[in-house]
Structures are given as structure tokens and as C-alpha cells.
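User: Quick one: structure for sequence A, then sequence B.

Assistant: Sequence A:
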Amino acid sequence: IMDLKKQTLTTVAGAGATNFNPLWLGDQLYFLSDRDEVTFNLFHYEPGSQQIRKLTDEQEWDIRAAAGHGSNIVYAAGGRLKELDLDTGKVRELNISIAPDLPQTRTQWKDAGGNIQHIDFSTTGKRVAITARGEVFTVPVEDGSSRNLTASGKRREYSALWSPEGSEIAYITESLQGQSLVIVDQQGGAELKEFPLGPHFYTLLEWSGGERQRIVYEDNHLGLHVLDIKSGKSSIIATASRRQSSATAVSRDGGWLAYTLAQANYQRDLVLYNFNTDKHSAVAQGNVDVDSPAFSPDGKYLYFAASTNAGPLKVGLNMSTQERPFRAGLYALVLSADGESPLSPRTGDEGGEDAEDAEEDEADDSVPATRIDLKGLPERVVALPVALRNYHDLAVGNDGMLYYLQFVQAGASVEPPGDNARDGNSLWRFDFEERSASQLLEDVSAFAISADGKQVLLSHADHSLSTAELGETLEPEPLALDGLRLRVDPRAEWALIFDETWRMQQEYFYAPNLHGLDWQAVYQRYRPLLDHVGTREDLNTLLVAMIAELQAGHNRAGGGDVYQAADTNTGLLGANLRIAGNRYRIEKIYTGEAWNPHLLAPLASPGNSAQPGEYILSINGRELRARDNIFAALQGSAGQQLTLRVGPNPNGRGARDIVVTPVESERQLRLWDWVEGNRRQVEQASAGRVGYVYLPDTAGAGYTFFNRMFFSQLDKQALIIDERSNSGGQAADYVVELLARQHLSGWADRDGMIFNTPAGALHGPKLMLIDQDAGSGGDFLPYAFRHLGIGKLMGTRTWGGLIGISTNPSLVDGGTVTVPYFRYFDPDLNWSIENEGVAPDIVVALDPIAANAGRDNQLQAGIEEILSQLEAYRQTVPRQAPPLPTRLGN
């Protein structure tokens, strides 16, 4: 509680519980809290005695909101309203019946084109199988109309594959009990076959041809399976050691499967599996990381990409993976012992295959058998003459040429706002006749070649699709998606989403025992509330309440078909404004600081700048007074030029016109102003001896901020690292490894200063500022900082969310559920930090009174502490070289 007269603070409810929804009735304070570790209930704080008393005893449902008047408080719990009489302490339920207009519940037609989850090309490239919004469509490339093959509305279907001969389509269908594989005719109609798969989540990968057709699929528990369509028997053929999806390929005759399998060393091995003998043979055994196997149509070769530098990239949780290049080579595996390399020398001698034989071979439509001689197989690997680059998604056309994607290297460039680095991803072709690679097309994020090898389906960075005839050049034609429409009954879809969310928690949560929670009982408890949901936003609220029963961080739900208001595109000027003289007066201008090339500061452009203290008199000739809403005048102006009339006087004397371009957001302008203000404050208070580094997160922005600020201040004697409000991302191993670097050696230069190894190191005292708004990676960073003995932590306890997310699929309407699927434990095998946070060594709470006055008491305390440490610190790293040798050979 803040006493506005005395300007003092009193803590009513401290750490250890969530306290919210404060309300005053007279001079008495009431609030909601879960301090009894059961549910949220209503509590009373008496300012005189400073005693806290529990007023309600809701055991089953949390109190979500409360409001009061007089001696009564009304609150919501379990979808019901209740009233507490403060005089008697009695609670009664309020029976209120309303008949709202709920337009979101009406059955309606929806465009599924923006919600595509999977695509597959038909045998000859005449149609595309698309799974979108839980339905399976086929879309014509030229002739015909789009078809919805499932149109169930009450089930989710996805992961559709076309059969090798093109007459059937297989897909996964979802139910509360589990999933099944369904095969239907390509034109739709009744199901031809259905195979129950089990209680997990599955993804279809390959449909093999040949006499004995099989479907290869994987589950969400790292298993790779094969289903024999004729017998209906399914078997698991491999289980990965790490969570990396298998890249697969089947030979054209249907006899062999090539797949990658993640091993304990994080590398993916290449394995060949014989369907008929049930035998596995590893080709690469941990010494390279293999991706994208692809059989040649003639059965002679298996192509793949392999990398020997992928190691530093294999654990994406680590911040040290940022901007690491991935370099892979392209290889051909000669499958038969008597086979020739696709790059065999050409002698030019007479007596080779004549033209007539070549034409006969070319006209032969029979499927050649794939013969693989396992003995000596690893020795028959041939490297193709291409540069080592970021290669993925290999496929072979009917022309025998190899097609593949080249992705832009991470960190190779930072694109301006609005540009997409993925536009640089490109489709390439390796020509075995010319023995060289050429780029076919830019802006390709994925592609698929038809089973006959003659057509290609292209996916682009803007999510559009196109098709083209495969060859030395491509002429893509857009694929029309206007037929991807379906009739949606929202209530039926919401029921599907509710069930799938419940199943995802059961299937993806890191602890199979769900911490001992009776998950079936949770379903029975929450499912009746679904009948009272009236909007998609309500559904998200219900989902969040249900998954919160697990009491785990990062477990969220959101998005979907929620209402989206039209964007007004209101421009901002990057300034603080104040009403003065019946005008808008510029109090402060945010400049974007120096060296932020993509950070535009509208009022700080040379030649078109304004000055603090000046007035904005008009916008595009429209007079601007205090009674006018300046933001109404700025609507629609983000990214557009405006003419402002500015001047030093409210009456317009001495005014001038400037042309500016308002920005959509001022967030980065204001952030960098705050960061640079803190850095200057630290520098001034320490007489230049102490540096300051801020990390807004532990992902891309945090990596950029740290590199920019840390390395530019290596000449400082000490360092304050500020991670307050750090939103997390990755585990910041990169940061702490640099901060903990030990001095190894010095090097004397003839003319310049000495330099050290490691060069990027600052060996003096270090202090980290933390607070309650830092979490996830913002929890791990201070933990690691202290664990490695780098320095002390100052501030308040961090949020407490060290549990990982984002492996489960999205919901049917594009909504998301982030199920935690891995969790931190410390070196002593303790589950910690999650739901606990990292406590500071020195507790300093942010003083809101000082903050309102523009003073950061936590930063001030940090400066005092680091200066105190600096006084006691003794430099052990030499600052100059020893005396030069005076004898030869020394």
C-alpha cells in the first residue's frame, strides 16, 4: 500500500503466493490470493492491526474476479456468481439468467487457406492433397474443383499422403481415445480401411509402392513405425535417443526404407531397413549428421546431405547455437557392389551404350528393383562436387537429377523491417551430365516432386503454393486455394479443441505421471463448463483454467478464431508529449541512439528534426489544439510521410514545416533510450571504470544486445549485467561462458597494446540485477551466473519458469497450446527453480516512488555494490608484457 501523503510503502502480501484483484471498501482492503496453496480465495487486510484474514473457503474452483459495494462482495468461481455478506460472513449463489446474442456460435463458412498444416503431391502432379483446419482436401492444379474428402466437422483429420499409384489417400484421424489411420478413395466417399494406431499422436511420412504396400509413420514418443496395409499389422522399427524427427525415403520398388535416427551424441545416423527381412544396416555411425535421404528412380543410388560441423547446433535450447553456420555436403551412396559412381570418369571411347539402347531404357516404364549390397556399403559413399552449405530436402526427378533446398545461413544478414530472410532460400539442381549445380528458383521454403518425377510443388515464404514442370528451368504457376472452404459448427469444433487440448497435456507433458494428478477427473470436472462457452475467447479461458491444474509454468493456450479488430495503423512520433499553451508540446525526443540502422526515429532525422520544447501546431495542414486527439490525426500514418508544422511558440511564431514518417511502434526507441541512459549513469557514477550490459531476453535480441554491449566495454574494470524483465528464450550458456572466461595468456605486439587469450574476457567484479519479471531463460541466466561463481545477484526473486515447450501440434483452428515437455533439474538432482525462481544474494525491491520520480533505486544500489567490490579487487591479469629478452634463444 502506498501512502500518497507520507509517500511511504507498506507490503501487505509478499512473495510465496499470487495476490491480485485488490479492492477497497471504506478503509478496508480485500484481495484474492492462493496463499493457502489450494485455490484462490478472498482475503481481508485490516490496516490498523495489519492482520490478514481469509473470508471464503472455495475448495473446488478458484475465485477469478471480485468486486464490492457497501458491505457486499460479489465474486466469480466455477462459472458462477456468488455474493459474500461481510457483516454475516454468509455466501449465497446469485442465480442470474441472461440470453446473450452469441454470433460466434453460429454455423458459418470458413476459409481454411490460411491454416494449412500439410501438403502432398499426387502421382502425376494433377492434384495436391492439403490438410487444413482438420479436414483433408484435394486441390486441382488445372482441371476440376477442390474436394473436401472428410468434411466431418467433429473429428480432426491431418497428415494426408497420396498412394503411389494415385487412387487412394491416407490420413490420421483424431478422437478422445487416440488416433487411427484411414484410407479413402481419392474422390472421397466411404472409408475404405481404418487402422487404429493407439493413444499417442502420429504423423504419416511415406507410402511405399510395390506389391506389398506399407505406410511409414512416427509417434510423439520418438518411435518410427511401419504399417503393412494388406495384413493391417503395425510394428515399431526404431526409437530415437533424441527428439529429432526422422527423415525418410522409400525405394521406388517398395523394398527398402532409408531413415535417419538421432543418437545419444545428438548426431543422426543413416540407416537402411529391408521391409522383407526386417534387418537394419547403419551407413553413418555417429561420425556425421545425416539428413534428407532420397533414392534415385533407377534404384542405383541413395542421395543424402551430411554435415561434420552440426555439433554446436544440435541442442537448440543453448544460446550458443545463435548464428552458427550449418554446412553440409551432398553425397551419393552406390547401392550395389558392382555399381558405378555417378561421377565416374568419362573416357570418350567407342563401344559404349548405343543410342537405340538408351532410347529403349528411357521408354521402359517398369519399376527397376533396388538391390543393396550391405557389405562394404559405407565405403561406397561418393561426395558430390558442391560447396558445403545449408542444404536440406533432397529429392530426385524422373530425369535422374538431384533437387534440393539451400537455406540462408543464420546470422548471415539482418534484414530491414518488412523483409523476410527466408526469401533467400532457394531450390537447386545438380546435373549429373554437367556435374555441376545451378540455382533454379529463389523464395522456396519447401518443395515436393510428384511420384512420377515430372512435376514439382513449391511452397514460398509468404505461404503461397505453386506448381511447375520439373526440368533445367522452372516456370511456376500459382495454385488456387480459393476452394479450401468448409462449413464450421463452432460448438462442435470447440468440443474437438477441448478434447485435443486435454489429450495433448496427457501425451506431451514431460512427466508421464502428470505429477500424480488424476487427469481423467480433471476432464470430468471441466468438460461440463464447455457447454457454457459462448466465444472462442471464452474457450481459451476455459482451456487455461484446465491446464493450470498441472501447476506448471509455460503451460499456455491462446489464439485461434478469436476476434481481431481492424488495425488502425496509427503512427507514432517517438516522443513524449505534454499539453501546454493549448498545444501539444514535445517534452522528449527518442533518437534511436547510435548504430541502430533499422530503428527509425521520426523526429530526429537530420534536416527534418524537431527539438524538445517545441510545439506540434498542425498535421498535414490540420490545426492541432489541446482538445484534439493527436493519435486520431495519426491514424493510418505508420510508414507514411506526414507534414508537421512545429515551432518554438504555441502561437505559431517562428514555425516551420518538417516531413516525417511515423513508426508503428516506439518500443525499441524507448528501450534503447532506457538502456543507454543506464549505461551512461553507470559510467558517470564509476568514473568510467564500470560497464553496463542489458539483456532483454536470452534469444536473438539478448544475443545481439550482449555482443554489442559486452565486447565494446572490455576495457572496463567491472561490469553490471542487468537482466530485469528478461523474457527468456534459450539457456544463456553463451553469456555465462564468456563472463566466466579465465585468463590463459598474454601476447606482446611490437607496436600496439598487449592482447590476451581469450581476448573477449573481462576479469573484474561482476554483478547481476534480477527481478520478479525475469523468467524462463531469465531464470536460468542468474542461476548459471551464481553457480559458476561469476558474481552476486541483486534485486528480487525471479519468476520461476524453467520448463520447456513447443513440440506439440497446433490446434485445429490455428490456436496454440504450449505443453511443457522437458524440465530443468540441478547438478545435485533436485527439481528446482520451476515454481520457485532464483533468489537474490542482495535483496533490493524496486521503489515505485523513486521510479515515478525517474530514479532507479535498484540500479543505484548495484552501482554502490560494484564500486565496493571494485575497491577490494586486486587485478591479477597482467596489463603489460614482461621485460624483453636480452639473450638470443630466450
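Sequence B:
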Amino acid sequence: MALRLAISLLSAAAIAYQILLIRLFSIIQWHHYAYMVISLALLGYGASGTFLSLFRRPLQDRFPAAFLWNAVLFSILSILCFAAAQALPFNPLETIWDHRQLYYLALLYLLLAVPFFCVANCIGLVLTRFTKEIHRTYRADLVGAGCGAAALAGALFLLPPSRCLFAIGALGLLAAAIASLDRRLRQPRWTPTLLAAAALALALIPSNPWSNLRLSEYKGLNQALRVPETEILRQRSSPLGLLTVVRSARIPFRHAPGLSLNFTEELPDQLGLFTDGDGLTVINRFTGSWEHLAYLDYLLSALPYHLLETPRVVVVGAGGGTEVLSALYHGSSRIDVVEFNPQMIDLVGREFGGFSGGILSHPAVEVHLAEARGFLAAESRRFDLIQIALVDSLAASAAGVHALSESYLYTVEALESYIGHLADNGLLAITRWLKVPPRDSLKLFLTAIEALERMGVSEPERRLALVRSWSSVALLVKNSAFSDGDILRLQEFCRERSFDLAYYPGMTTAEANRYNLLEEPYLFAGARALLGGARDAYVAGYKFNLEIATDDRPYFFHFFKWRVLPEFLSLRERGGAGLIEWGYLLLVATLLQAVLAGLVLIVLPILIPQRGAPRGSLAARIGLYFFALGLAFIFIEIAFMQRFTLFLGHPLYAVAVVLASFLFFAGLGSGSAAAWHKLQGRWSGRGSTIDRTILGIGALALLYIGALPTLFEHWMDWNSSAKVLISLLLIAPIAFLMGMPFPFGLKQVAAVRPEWIPWAWGVNGWASVLSPVLATLIAIHFGFTAVVGLAVGFYLVAALAIRDVR
């Protein structure tokens, strides 16, 4: 019992460490690099299988020492390896010109693999040593991991990430202390006391300079802090982001994206507000006088207010409050502010409420702690303006950092929802950074066309307008045709501010590209082509991927096309490197590295001459079974995380709820495997227990593919607690069944070749390494429905592979 509890604690620590690394690398780099590092770090599980296969006898002879030392080493190395990783001069954006970064990346994931290797050794040792308790051990592993995922999400609301790192390290020592209480380990009485005291000391150790997070030099916060007399006023951490408020006395912030170059007056005092060290927004000083806020009327996002009178406005994303201030400045009658991060609201509205003039407490303003689509799903009201301003940084956008980011803000279903909540003659306004050649802006324009056509609009070209400044682009979608008066006001607004018209109904080529000159009127030409009869040919021939994002494939920022890669590489010395979506290519490189490393790990035990090495057709079938299980389990898990992100409102909640639910209920399923087998034995009919279990998983997975979108739409307006409960109830049945095939398979291996158990464990671990990267690539190109469909296929392959293994 004590040993299984120790396994649960180690698994909880390992999954918490995995999620924490994602959070940490989101801060010091960007989050999609974190996913690659985590995937490769999980090579530790595959390496563990090889290690245990090669040294099975000496490790089993010294089982107590081997288990305890691996638990202690995880505790120490989880902290030291991250500190060493931070010391590496790794910067993924520099791969454009510095190939040494690929070596740093390899060293980085090898470092981070070591703690996972230690935990996997502990679990593998117990699975090999106590073969009659496989289902109980696996239950302890999964249930512990599920609890660890949920616990870390809660801990990140209470502790900064660096403190969580020490707490996770302490769990390793605590697990060793509990394991030493098990009589089978025959440890002295002082051992658990000493280990528990060490765990407490590690959890309470004060922060050290070497444990502080080192942000990428390309992140906005790092650059801002290089300016003399710049100071951090406040820092608030949660799983939703690390918020940092900064004041610069020497060179004050002058942040106004889309500001007309015709504006020559002073901007108000501003405080910088960074999210995860980037994504700058500002808090403007507001004293109640509008005299120093004239710049708000010279922003590109001010255009809708010149087409509407006293509108009812929805501002998506409070940020530092600039768009809320702009809505008040332009005389909006009511402003609904939708913000998902409560700490953002607290900082702007309370802590710096005196500086911001208390704009979030203004009588015309109502703040909603919600996600945009969930808020609209709960609303029966119609709005005159839905304003979605810039929510990311120019540097990150230009570098292709968001290429692997899922976003349900810009899918075609999202735009249908926004337009559907507009009043008669209402406007949807979305602002994006300007890229040349255009990417975001044209894909967004095409998405708006598709949304209008799906809603039955016969002439979408009469409802669209596109305007650009020197740095940004604004798309307007009207819930009726633009009138002649609208167009006159649109032209006047742009003429007074030297903004360029890119498209409006009836626009001519001569009106494009007048002020902020580009080599060609790219946006106007693109808009006309997308509205014309040759739309499909234009999209197919364009240098970048313009296919619209959907809820099933929400990768709006994926613009990469393989066929143009040679052309971009040939232009690298002339600046062409910036045109390449490096995030996508690094993901592909990660997959290739993982395949090669995994082949070495799995083939090695076969190549080295030793007694009982896995060979022959039986080894191939067993290896295929555990490999297919590893792919299938993670594929479904990842697809569900993405599906539930839209429903629960934020990726963090999806990861915490979905991952914890899958692991916890799969653990219960594993623990019930023996009873399930007996029950199945009484069931007359053909087919093994594994066959029936896998058929049940496949049937539920396919049912969910069709049912979840409809169910989510029906329940989208429910409160967060109800959504979490619904998620648990939906996930429990399929996760329960998914926990059974692995212990069933290990039982069969134990019956025919018990010495192959570590190798089977390693094969399954290797598949777990490949799954996140492979599933992401498939989702980018074919959608999450395809990911689930493939997972069902992998389960069927597993059932065929293990059949009649005796």
C-alpha cells in the first residue's frame, strides 16, 4: 500500500512538472516551444524502458535502493536540470541565422529528459517486480497523475511558478519517505524521517538568484527593462499568465498601435502591462479630462465610432483599458468588457484604478469575467459594435511564434457568432498587425466572406471594409450593406489620418496605396481576388496558407506551405528568413528527432546480445500493441483538450480538467481491470475482453466526434462550475475504458515473457513522445476529427496485434 501511494505521488509530481515546464517556458520563451521540449523530455520514459531491460537483474536484486535513489534523484534533478536548461544560450528565434541553436535544443531536451527518466524507472521497477499487482500499480500511476494535474493548476493561483518547482521537487523526497515505510523495502526506521525532513526543507527553501526566470531577450519586457530608470511596479502570477506592470521614468511608454502619423500631440502618461513578458498593453493616466486623450481618435480602431452614434459596445479583452477608454471617449452608451483573466481586471480596475481613472467602474461600463464566445452564447441582446483589438505582440506575430497556437477567436464559427449578435447596421471590428506580403489580414477577410455566405448573405462584398495604417489592418463587417453615407465617412476618416483604404464596396484601384506606400496594393488586390470567381485558384496559388480556421482546425496563424520553402530559403540572405513560419518547421524537426531517438531506444535492447531479449514475431506483435496504445491514448487526450478549450474558455482549464479527468478515470479503469475481465468472462459471445473494451472505446470516441459540438453549443452559456461537472461526466466513460488495455496487455506479457515488461513500458513511452507532436501536425492539416479517427484506428490495430498472444 505504501509503495503504491509513493507511485501516485511520483506520478503526480511528474505530470505537475510537465505542466509546470509548459508554464515556465511560456514565460521565458513562447508556449509552443514548450510543447516541443516537453514531448522530447518524455523520451525519459522510453529511455527508462531500455535501461530497465538492459539492467533488469542487478536492478531487481537491489530493488529497494534502486527505487529510493531514483525517487530522490527526481527530486534533486527536477530543479537542477531546469536551472541548467536556463543557463543554455538557447533562443529559438535565432535558428533563422544561428544553426547552433539546434544543438542547444537537443541538449535542452536531454537535460529535461533526466527527471522523467527517474520517475519512469520507479514505475517500471514496480511493474516488473510485482507482476501480480500490475493493474493496481497502473491505477496508482494514473490516479496520481490526474490528481497532480489538477493540484498544479490550483497551486499556480497561489504560488509563483518558481516556488511550484521546489514544491514538486519536494514531492519526490516525500514519495521516497512513504515508500521506505513499505516492509518489502526493509529500510531502517530513521530513513522515512530523514527523507520527510529533507522534503520539508526543500519545499521551504528560499528563492535563489539562479532559480529566477530568465526571459528571452526578444520579449518586450526584457527589452523594456534595459532602459535606465525602468522599474517593475507590480507582478501578479496565475496559470492564465504572468502580469507585470512597468514604469519607465527615463523614456516613458508611448504605446498606441495603429496610431496615425498625422497625430503630433503628446500621449498621456502610460504604464506598461506585459503578459508572460510580452503582449504589451498599457494603462493610460486618466484624470477625468479628455483633453490629453485626443490620440484615441487617431487610432485605427476608432474607425467604427465614426460610423455609429452612441453605440452599445462589446470590448473583447480589457487589457490595460485603452479600448474601454476609447469607447468612453467616443460617447458609447453602454460598454460590456469581456476579460478572462481576473487578475487583469483587478490590476487595472483596483490596484491602478487611481491611475486609470477608475474606467472599469464607470457607470456605462460593465465587466464580465468570461471568454468572448461563452459571453455571447449567454446573451440575447444585440450590440452595435463588437470590438476585437490587437491581443498579441508585433514581434511574436512577425516571427511566426503563434504558428502552432490554437485560437478560437478567429475561426469561421466565431465570426458567425459575432455577426449573429450584431444589431441592425451593427459592426464587427477586428484589428491585426500588418504583414507584408499579407497573411493575417487576407485570411481574416476570407473567413468573414465564408461566415457571411454560411449565414445566407448573397452579396458579402457589400458588407465588408478593410483599412490599414503603417503597422496594422482593421477589418469591418457590417450587419447590412454599407451605405453611401458610410463610405463617405470612411473615406473622410482615412483622408484626415492618412490611413490607406484597402477595400470597400465599389472601391477602385486608384484609391489604394496612397499614404503608407507598399510596393503594390497587396491588400486591395487580394480582397478583390477573394471576392471574385477565381477565389479557390487564388488561395491555392498564394505563397502563404490562407485556408480558413474552423473550430475543428483552429490554427488561424498557420500560414506555412511546403512548396514555397525552397524559394524563401533562397531569399534568406536578402531578408526572406522572416517569411518562414519557423515554429512549424521546428515542430517537424522535433518529430524527426523524436523518431530517430526512439528507434535507438527501442531497437537497442534487441541489438545487444542478451538472454531474453525481445525478438521474433511475438516481440513485434507485443511492441506494436503497446506502441499503438501509446499513440491512441494521447491522440484522444489531445483532441479532447482542444475540443474542451472552446467549451471551458481557456487552454489552462482544458488541460487541468481534461488531463486530470482522463488520468484519474483511466486509473480507476485500470484498477477495475481484473473485475471487468471476470465480468466479461460471463458474457457469452465471441471476442476477448481486450476486443470488447477497445470496441467500446472506439464507439464512444466516434459518438463524441459528432455529438460534442452540438452539446457544447447547447451548454456554452452555463457557468464555469457546471461546465466542469459536465466535462467530468462526459470524459469519465471513455477514460474509464481507456485505462484497461494497458494493464490487460502487461498481464499477457507477464504470462509469456515477464522479462519483456520493461521493454513494453519503453515502447509505450516512446509512443507517448511522438503522439503530441504527431497529433498537432495532423490537427493543423486535417483537424481534430481526423486525430480522433486515427486514434480509433490505432486501438483496432492494437486489438489485432495482441490477439492470440500466448
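The longest strand covers residues 422-433. Residues 532 and 538 are 9 Å apart (CA to CA).

User: Thanks, that's what I needed.
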